[in-house]
Amino acid sequence: MKKYNGLTILAMVILLVSSCTDEFLDKQPFAVTSSDAFFTSEQDALLAVNAAYEELKRFKHGGRNDVNAYDATGLMWSGNVHEHPDLVSTFGIVRTFTIQPTDNLANHNWWRGYVGIQRCNQVIQNVSEIENIDSGVRDRIIGEAYFLRGLYYHYLTMWYGGVPIVDRLLDPGQEEDFVIPRSTKEEILALVKSDLEKAESMLPTSYSGDDVGRATRGAAKALLLKVLLWQKDYPAALAKAQEIEGMGYSLVDEYTSLFDGSNENSSESVFEIQFAAVTGENTGSSLSLIYGPNGEGMVPNGGWGFVRPLPDLVNEYEEGDSRKSATVFEIGDTFTKNNGSVITFEDRVNGTGFGTRKYVTDPPSGTTVGINYAPQNFHEIRYAEVILLYAEALLRNGQKDAAVEQINRVRARPSVDLPLLDPGTLTDQQAWEALYHEYRVELALEARFGYALRRWGIASEWYASKAGIDSPLTEFENFKSGKDEVLPIPQRQIDFSDGTLDQNPGY
Q: Rounded to the nearest 5°, which phi and psi values hold at 323?
């Protein structure tokens, strides 16, 4: 699918949104094109669904470079990092729980999520009407759109709780189409579940050639597993996890290879956001530049160092856990560039004493260096997380020993090879703590842990336990239970809705 990341997608993006303004509920044409003229062939359907994928590169980043698969909100909620001083007013307001309804990040997440949803709605509503298309390809494309719409809504409900349901194209001639009340979080999760079940039935288990990287049946099942855990439907979650076990996924031996671009779409990949470093096409990832240590010379332009790991995260790693050196730079660690030169990390900007290592790479030879030069994909869902979700489902169903066995699978990766936990010596609470630990270190800097804290229902106690540990760099004591589990509804959207949208409690 990487070959679709260039001009074909760009053309479709322009076609779908050229008539739009930059807001969702501003009563202007939203993702409306002359679909009767456009949706006439299989190629049109492919272009449309490719545009729905493209928004994944944009909707998860706020306040700076547009094309970026790193999830700013999830990172700041994780409690694992501190933002660059230049980003206090964009990222820092999330980390310190001081974000306001008028702040840009809240509105950015909302807007980008609904752009993705409406592109999916274009596909779902129009592709079924195309006559000049293979029926199997048609169903697969619609299944991809259902998966992507479920993914976008999944994030919207994690960010805001209940949001408006827009499951059709909006009519710019109908005023009431743009005044949509919020549905409850439970209703949104039910919609996501329905979309993913449709995707399960329509998607293939794998692809070949240029289509590698598209949503698969396994991706739909894995996201559905997470949604079922959010819904607290624990028996169904356990059954779904067991279904995935028979689909042929496996952990790769070398943990580092997942993040340096050398092991793309591997056996551990369930769903990756695809990037390709193609000179002049602006199709690479900005992860390496934006999160590379600031001023160290490891990456072009010195690296921007937007996020810096906190000491408490580094201290979470057990002695001998090789994932630490694959995830963070400590003072004195070295980085070898493609030309053979060796850079030693010094924390030159007086940050936290640590730098981000995961996803940081030197540009491939011959690449024209810009912001989006990095070639590696971003793991939206990888099998290691699915195994830990399986463990979570087992714990919720009272199967502690079996859950610990799943946690041990992650610890036993050959390049990690940590001592296995003995289920017989662990209490239920200790098994949960083992899951929290493994989730935090295995997925560190992948913007997962902050969401998991909320799914587990322990955000308040976890932030309280960390308050002051890395002072003055953290302000965990600002967290207010019942408020800071979600972001504020953007004030701009409330204003555009003529008050139909109500604000989240506490904002």
A: -65, -25
Cβ(322)–Cβ(349) below 8 Å: no
DSSP 367-397: PPPSSS-B---EEEEEHHHHHHHHHHHHHHT
3-state SS string for 391-420: HHHHHHCCCHHHHHHHHHHHHCCCCCCCCC
β-strands 354-356, 328-330 pairing: antiparallel
Residue 453 has pLDDT above 50, yes or no: yes
Angle formed by the axes of helices 135-160 and 104-126, nearest 10°: 160
Structure tokens at 473: 């760099």
Nearest residue to 9 (alpha-carbon basis) of 48, 63, 37: 48
Find out whether 47 and 139 touch, Cβ atoms under 8 Å: no
In this structure, are residues 63 and 17 in contact, taking their beta carbons and an 8 Å threshold?
no
Q: What is the pTM of this model?
A: 0.92
- Region 337-365: mean pLDDT is 89
> Tokens 């209940």 correspond to what residue?
162
The model's pLDDT over 241-282, given as tens digits with 9 standing for 90+, comes to 999 999 999 999 999 999 998 999 999 999 999 887 765 566
Residue 365: the pLDDT is: 65
Across the chain, mean pLDDT equals 87
Element (H or E) spanning 143, and its range? helix 135-160
Question: CA separation (Å) from 286 to 16, 151, 292, 377, 423?
Answer: 24, 22, 10, 11, 42
Do 280 and 267 touch, CB atoms closer than 8 A? Answer: no
pLDDT in tens, 18-60: 333 334 333 333 344 445 578 999 999 999 999 999 888 765 4
Predicted local confidence at residue 32, as pLDDT: 43
d(CA 391, CA 297): 41
* Peptide bond preceding 181 in cis form (omega within 30 of 0): no
Distance CA 93, CA 218 (A): 36
Residue 82 main-chain phi, psi, to 5 deg: -120, 140
DSSP E strand stretches across 260-393: 269-273, 307-309, 328-330, 334-336, 342-344, 354-356, 378-382
Position 211 pLDDT exceeds 70: yes
How does DSSP classify residue 287? Answer: H
* Range list of H helices, 302-370: 311-316, 323-327
C-alpha distances out from residue 72 to 91, 128, 398, Å: 7, 36, 34
